[in-house]
Amino acid sequence: MLTLPWTTEEHARRIAIGAGEPSWLLADRLDGLGLAASLPIESNMLFTSYVDLRAAARLADLEPYVQTGDATAISAELPPGAAGLLQVQEDRVVARALAPRLREAGVIVDTFAEVLRSRPVLLERYLANAPSLPPNDRIAQLARGLWTMGAFVYVPAGVQVEAPIVVRWGAGRAGRGLVSRTLVVLDEGATATVLEEQDATDLAAAGQSLWWGTLEVRLAPGARLDVAGLQDFGQSTVMFVNRHATLEEGSSLRWALASVGAQLQKSRIDNVLLGRGATVHQAEIGFGSGSQLFDLTSYTRHIGEDTTGDLLSKGVFLDRARGYFKGLIEIRKSARGTDSFLGEFAMLLAKRARSVAIPSLEIDQPNVRRASHASSVAPIDEAQLFYLQSRGLDRDTARRFIVLGFLEPVVARIPLPEAQDRLRTLLDRKWAPLVTAEAA
Amino acid sequence: MTLTQREMVANDRSRFDFKDEIVYLTETKRGLTRATVEEISALKNEPEWMLEFRLRAYDHFLKRPMPAWGGDLGKIDFDRIVYYRKPSEREEKSWDDVPEKIKQTFERLGIPEAERKFLSGVGAQYDSEVVYHSVREELTKIGVVFMGTDQALVEHPEIFRRHFGTVVPPEDNKFAALNSAVWSGGSFVYVPKGVEVPLPLQAYFRINGENTGQFERTLIVVEEGAKVHYIEGCTAPVYATDSLHSAVVEVVALPGSKVRYTTIQNWSNDVYNLVTKRAHAHENATVEWIDANTGSRLTMKYPSIYLRGRGASADIISVAVAGRGQHQDTGAKAVHLAPDTRSRIVSKSVSKDGGRATYRGHLKVAPGATNVVASVRCDALMLDDESRSDTYPYIDIQEDDTSMSHEATVGRISQDQVFYLMSRGLSENEAQNLIVQGFLEVFTKELPMEYAIEFNRLVKLEMEGALG
């Protein structure tokens, strides 16, 4: 159920008072907790039989961070090729930078705490009443009530940000947990790329840790956003994340999300295609080993006319790792001319690995360009292995190549070359325990 | 079926919606209590173990909450239903002995002709008791048993007790528990080792009597290497208040056997049709469910095959047509529990005039079930903007050498195709009808010819809006 000793109103008040937050913000927190109180951990009956939070059972002992992000004095060099940076280590902002040209153009890459001081009205407009979080999701509403760190990315109308804005989270200290929200707003006709990285701060941590966040995207008419995510937490970190995007007329969003780390990742993506011609492309991969569980839910709601949804999830599972891919495409009566596809594909590479796929459709409007889904589970194709071996590769290398090829559609869409290389290294490193086990 | 009868089907389906004034010789009071269950068992003069089975099921029925998923079950009032009704005192062997009133009903449905044409046996259920039954002599000679389930409990107690309730235990779900508590009638089929039944066995079911629940229980046991095709078709009169049909069908396909079970479900549009159908396929056995649902207000039915033995094979074709006021929540389940097993699920649904068609499926490959090949295909056709189509597939794979593929598409009739057919001289309605028939052909071609013709006529009537 995810009821922790600190998922309480008292705790929310303590955070708000400690940070000297305005009253609308406390009210918003309490609204979130109020909603959460009446929600089950999975509010969709379709998916209740596949909820496994055993890995989160020990979170009760965990101590949450309470300090909110205060970043007045911190600034740093931009990473090569990046346009902006916000880096959070456990509960501290350790780096913050923005290209001067963008700062002049009115772009914001900062913490909620800072924006509350500099542009309180702007933040209130996008944060109050949480229009960018699903009202029926307990995990999202608890985050709304209990966040202590907030990251805000804002691109004003007509501004084109070519290079990626990097938001980097570090977590993993034993016995500690961070609850955060990230809000990305693109005004009319703006374009941007956001790279969100989640890394382990302490790979050797003996105890469990928690990273619990959101990524809330608001796209005004004609805005275009690319989001790349690379999650590589340590094996004792539990991760909850809600990614929610609202797309107005003619806007477009591309997700490329890779999950490699964490003991348990429970994630939910909501794409709400409100305006005519809005488009979302979503590619998501999970590569699990050990006893990792990737619980990946995705909702796409077609509301406006002529909207497009193209969703692809891929999973590769070694050892006893598991992937739950739960998807739902809704095509509302108003959504004439929809084109929607949902694909969920998995490779099981070990006897005890497991893959669950629930690619669902709910369609109230038959006037569609396309509404379909596909799914498959299969081992590595022996013919492909044979071919690569005939070209001189040994069997293990051939297997790695085929798996990297299977996952490449997401890898290729990670924006920074260094980040892309890092992801390839991370994916390759997943094999290490298996190779040892096979040799032994 | 004769030409006249076909015309009857084609021209005026309301002729099926007649209601006979039957004087029921025995019926229980409305509502369900422990005493009702005991009374049913006593009326049937059942062995003690069956009463215990019924009571165990009744207890579970009370405990079990209503399913919160699927269709809207809110209007079912268990207290208003009559759970048992016995229309005639004894089972008839000869057609001449069947009471005149009931006979007329069956004659209007064309059962004797159907039998003469191609059926090897007829078991016709009128409300809660099998009243007419015949099996061709040659089948009896080779040991095939085809009779009412109640009669089988008396005449074949060992086979009955060995298999009854083993495929669908009373605790399986709320409606299986209800059926187990109050079951009456249904068909019992036993095919001995190595025997191939050359022609399909057939049973017709009808509901009559306002607020009569029909809780038939069908048990099919097919011994090693044997082969049988069982066909069940339904029509029912229309009543103003809701009627409940909650059947349990159990199929035991022993090693190397082959069983095909074909259903055309065409209940009237006030019936709740909540059915548990499940088969166990043992080593190298093949089970096929060929299942079409065109009638009822709400159907919740997911024919299932548990592949328990190495090399077993499952084939499920599920077809649904949802018209005005209807919700067809149908689908299929294949559960792979043994190595080298295969399954194929094909689902086709059509929704129109505000109807709702839902595909709900489950494909599971359990640990230990190596080298499984499975495929699921579901297609939905929506004929207008008022209708709705949902697809909920569950795919749970726990073996690494599984090969599973799944595909689904939803869409409306292609205007290009309609235009083409109209340019060849068909009216718009005829064109649409032809396209829908083509869409459903994967099902129709699996039917015996007589049924295929009748089914196409039924679809045509649905398309013309000529049906309820």
Helix content of chain B: 25-40%
Provide the succession of SSEs of chain A: HHEEEHEHHHEEEEEEEEEEEEEEEEHHHH
* Poorly predicted ranges of chain B: 1-15, 111-122, 236-240
Return Rg of chain B in Å.
21 Å
Total count of strands of chain B? 23
Number of helices of chain A: 10
Keywords:
heterodimer, A: 440 residues, alpha/beta, ten-stranded mixed β-sheet, 23% helix, B: 468 residues, eleven-stranded mixed β-sheet, 13 helices, globular, disordered N terminus
Care to describe what's here?
The complex is a heterodimer of chains A (440) and B (468). Chain A is of the alpha/beta class and 440 residues long. Chain A has one domain. Helices cover 23% and strands 40% of the residues of chain A. Chain A is built from ten helices and 20 strands. Chain A has helices at residues 9-18, 23-37, 100-104, 112-118, 120-127, 138-146, 382-390, 395-411, 417-429, 432-439, and strands at 63-64, 84-89, 92-98, 108-111, 149-155, 165-171, 176-186, 191-200, 209-219, 224-232, 237-247, 252-259, 264-273, 279-288, 293-302, 308-317, 322-331, 338-348, 354-363, 368-378. In chain A, a hairpin with a 2-residue loop joins strand 2 and strand 3 (92-98). In chain A, 54% of the residues are buried. By secondary structure, chain B is of the alpha/beta class. Chain B folds into two domains: 3-301, no CATH class; 415-468. Helices cover 26% and strands 34% of the residues of chain B. In chain B, a hairpin with a 2-residue loop joins strand 3 and strand 4. In chain B, helix 2 packs antiparallel against helix 3 (48-63). The longest helix of chain B has 16 residues, at 48-63. The A-B interface holds A 45-46, 49-50, 333, 346, 348-368, 370-379 and B 68-69, 367, 380, 382-385, 387-412. Strand 19 (354-363) of chain A pairs antiparallel with strand 22 (388-397) of chain B, so a sheet runs across the interface.
